[in-house]
Amino acid sequence: MSTGLDGVIAAETVLSHVDGEAGRLIIRGHDLETLADHVSFEEAAAILWDGFVPTDDLKRRFGEARDRAFARFAPFNPQLAALTPIEGMRLLMAALADAEERHAVLAVGGAAVAAAMAIRAANHQAPVAPDPSLGHAADLLRMMRGVEGDADEVAALDTYLVTIIDHGLNASTFTARVVASTDAGLFSAIVAGLCALKGPLHGGAPGPVLDMLDRIETPLQAEAWMEDAIGRGERLMGFGHRIYRVRDPRADVLKGAVRRLKGRDNRITLAEAVEAAALKALARHKPGRKLETNVEFYTALLLDAIGVPREGFTPLFGAGRAAGWVAHALEQERAGRIIRPQSRYVGPWPAQAA
Ligand code: ACO
User: Fold this and answer.
1) Domain check: are 180 and 227 in the same one?
2) What is the distance in A from the centroid of ligand 1 to the CA of 241?
3) Does residue 300 sit in the same domain as residue 317?
4) Domain extent at residue 156
């Protein structure tokens, strides 16, 4: 038995490969570093979806899908104020009917609209309708903030969405594949992925990363704070990974994008001090574990710098990863075999008849 399925290979995929020893992420034959900063989210989705979904003119088709999704979601808006943004996004995505449309493009367009609408509603702001003429990242930022971002902010969000588009058989992607393997339909697979992403051990970490930076306040306090936190048995958010034994390559891509957002209050100096202190403390307290910085640490800085409220970090992650969930769900459907592992029974046995 493998607790947590460590090392278990449960699918063959052409989509992405995570080499945890080398710190390398390959997406459909491209190293992440050659995609992020060089292609838009639409172009990255086209690369990922090749052979699974028609990929012509995705910019226009995502725009149309955002419009359609907005119309579908509008009646649910009054219910969102009582929910956290990730709960609101889950509600909206669940409103897309499997039987009605098995539409990959709608899943991704809808995820962007759902994220923006749920974030605004949680802050008691009216929803902002999509502008289908804009690129996906630009419109997502606009729908969320109510005003258009400048070119640097849009570029940073595009880099983020490309960086997190897919990542092997992580918890949410595996969940999406399990649901897809039962032929439950594409939107059910996406909602399931979103539910798995919600947890702080997976996609819910970047909000707590920012909380941690707030509590540490100044670089001088970083080392003492880390010692105390690890002493209390806490997990340091933004560090550690099931697969990476070296630095997560996505962390450096996002750190570069944050640095390019100069002039904004993006806490990079504090973050670097906190990162160094955390790595030192983890090396001392967890020797041999090789706990390094993961994607969530600089995600928090990037999304904060472009005006995403911290409860909105996980929904934005879901908006980008939706493209990966779609591809994996379709690949799993093609594999045509239900995912059904076994458990080992360790409970009591019925008493033997005398
Ligand atoms: N802070 C302190 N200790 C840690 C951390 C951490 N961030 N991560 C792992 N450890 C410790 C565990 O307490 C455990 O120690 P023990 O054996 O002494 O009890 C040991 O390291 C387990 O290490 P792994 O097997 O490498 O970790 P696992 O695969 O179980 O967990 C996880 C991976 C969930 C990401 C973990 O590192 C963690 O909780 N990190 C903080 C949350 C976080 O940043 N999540 C985002 C991950 S990236 C993503 O999903 C998109």
Assistant:
1) no
2) 6
3) no
4) 12-203+311-335
Residue 287, domain CATH: 1.10.230.10
Which amino acid is present at 350? P
* Residue (of 134, 142, 155) closest to 39 by Cα position: 155
Q: Is the CB of 254 under 6 A from ligand 1?
A: no
165 and 283 in one domain? Answer: no
Stated pTM of the model: 0.93
Q: Which residues touch 73 (CB under 8 Å, ≥6 apart)?
A: 92, 95, 110, 113, 114, 117, 127
Nearest-5° Cα angle at 18, 213 to 177: 95
**Which two structure tokens, joined as six digits, stand for 62?**
């995502």
What residues are annotated to the active site? 241, 296
Is residue 327 domain-shared with residue 271, that is, in the same domain?
Answer: no
Element (H, E) at 18: strand 16-19
- What would the pLDDT profile of 75-134 be if each residue is shown by its tens digit? 999 999 999 999 999 999 999 988 766 699 999 999 999 999 999 999 999 999 999 999
- Identify the three-state secondary structure at position 177: helix
Q: Is residue 239 part of a domain?
A: yes
Give φ, ψ of 340 to 5 degrees. Answer: -150, 85
pLDDT in tens, 288-333: 888 999 999 999 999 999 999 999 999 999 999 999 999 999 999 9
The response to whether residue 245 sits with its C-beta less than 6 Å from ligand 1 reads no
Name the residue of 25, 201, 232, 295 whose CB sits within 8 Å of the most ligand 1 atoms, as the mutation to test its pocket. 201
Question: What are the distances in angstroms from CA 245 to CA 20, 23, 241, 252?
Answer: 6, 7, 7, 15
Integer Cα distance of 68 and 55 in angstroms: 19
